[in-house]
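Propose amino acids for all 408 sites.
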């Protein structure tokens, strides 16, 4: 549904910021919130998966910040097929999604039964104070799914293009396709837009796709911080975290990976999310006119209990040679559920959203709000839900009614 521009919060809206983190499932990060709010579709503690010996392993609030998910859980298409359907080669119509293959899938990484059960562990809410606070203070999405059951780059493509042009792998796909990126659409219509990557040593995964003819699209994270301070934030901003540990470009020490991709320290990602939030919130003018979406690109092979639903196909087909499975993939079902939180002083506290969302909803929302009718988009994006109507309060929340964070 297009945004209702008669609502005060949408009338005030001038900026949308999307921060996309890496490779964590909803249950892993936010599943523990069900204990305090039954409306949140998290974990009861009774969820299980069979290990390779036939023993039922249980979910437990024992997730660790680092060192637990090493090696990195497999999240390529065939592995995700195993996680969802219990078979690496078969999916629908032969099988129904049971979400019973996560432990077996992780066993394949190390052949260690005990270690394979770690894939069911989740964070107690108090171990993730930033993400937990934002989810409970603003709006949490119960049904935000990755766009396809596969890895990072093809999922992030849906956030940029509304499609992956038939890709289900980590292959790069280039401009010149039939659908323009949301950045190209915005610029062509005279709007301002930036994709902020962390720094030159940890540049965006989309540089090859998007940078070719438009270097002006890109800025560093320091550019984002400066734009917030100077009231120069673009109408649409997409922020990427730091993907690697490396020397900081200003010589101040080490820049620690903050993307939360296993097995990077989750606390560094908490600090990064807090930094983005604080920078928007500390500028009253910006805070009143900005919506921030914090979302994860895909589940990273980590357990979630909600079966992915069917969706509108995007018009492409991936062959078995690409998926590593028995059947072609018609982009007619979504990937595994991921955390997603919408932040704005115009969002009612404790909102829980039950409609189905996925990454094509990002360019759909930006297009509908800033550009209006735009038929030259993928069928998936045209059918996607938009999220700005969650800015539904008749008056902005008081400053004292919105959290702030201390960043070390």
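Proposal:
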């Amino acid at each position: 549904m297009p945004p209702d521009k008669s609502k005060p919060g949408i009338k005030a809206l001038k900026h949308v910021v999307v921060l996309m983190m890496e490779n964590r499932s909803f249950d892993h990060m936010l599943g523990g919130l069900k204990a305090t709010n039954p409306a949140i579709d998290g974990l009861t503690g009774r969820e299980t998966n069979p290990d390779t010996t036939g023993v039922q392993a249980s979910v437990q609030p024992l997730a660790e910040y680092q060192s637990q998910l090493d090696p990195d859980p497999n999240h390529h298409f065939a592995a995700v097929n195993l996680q969802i359907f219990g078979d690496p080669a078969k999916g629908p119509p032969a099988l129904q999604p049971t979400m019973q293959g996560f432990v077996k899938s992780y066993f394949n990484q190390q052949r260690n039964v005990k270690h394979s059960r770690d894939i069911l562990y989740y964070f107690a809410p108090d171990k993730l104070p930033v993400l937990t606070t934002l989810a409970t203070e603003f709006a949490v999405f119960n049904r935000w799914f990755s766009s396809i059951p596969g890895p990072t780059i093809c999922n992030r493509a849906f956030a940029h293009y509304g499609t992956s042009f038939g890709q289900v792998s980590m292959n790069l796909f280039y401009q010149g396709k039939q659908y323009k990126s949301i950045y190209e659409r915005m610029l062509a219509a005279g709007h301002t837009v930036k994709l902020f990557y962390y720094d030159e040593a940890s540049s965006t995964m989309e540089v090859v796709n998007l940078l070719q003819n438009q270097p002006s699209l890109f800025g560093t994270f320091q550019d984002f911080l400066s734009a917030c301070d100077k009231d120069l934030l673009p109408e649409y901003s997409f922020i990427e975290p730091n993907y690697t540990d490396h020397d900081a470009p200003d010589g101040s020490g080490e820049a620690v990976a903050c993307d939360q991709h296993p097995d990077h320290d989750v606390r560094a990602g908490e600090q990064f999310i807090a930094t983005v939030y604080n920078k928007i919130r500390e500028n009253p003018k910006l805070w009143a006119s900005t919506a921030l979406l914090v979302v994860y690109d895909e589940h990273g092979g980590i357990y979630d209990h909600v079966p992915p639903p069917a969706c509108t196909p995007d018009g492409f087909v991936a062959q078995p040679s690409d998926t590593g499975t028995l059947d072609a993939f018609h982009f007619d079902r979504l990937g595994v559920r991921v955390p997603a939180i919408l932040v704005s002083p115009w969002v009612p506290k404790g909102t829980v959203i039950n409609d189905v969302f996925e990454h094509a909803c990002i360019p759909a929302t930006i297009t509908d709000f800033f550009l209006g009718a735009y038929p030259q988009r993928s069928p998936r994006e045209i059918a996607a839900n938009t999220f700005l109507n969650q800015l539904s309060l008749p008056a902005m929340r008081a400053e004292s009614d919105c959290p702030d964070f201390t960043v070390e």
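The chain has one domain: 8-37+124-396. The CA atoms of residues 317 and 330 lie 5 Å apart.
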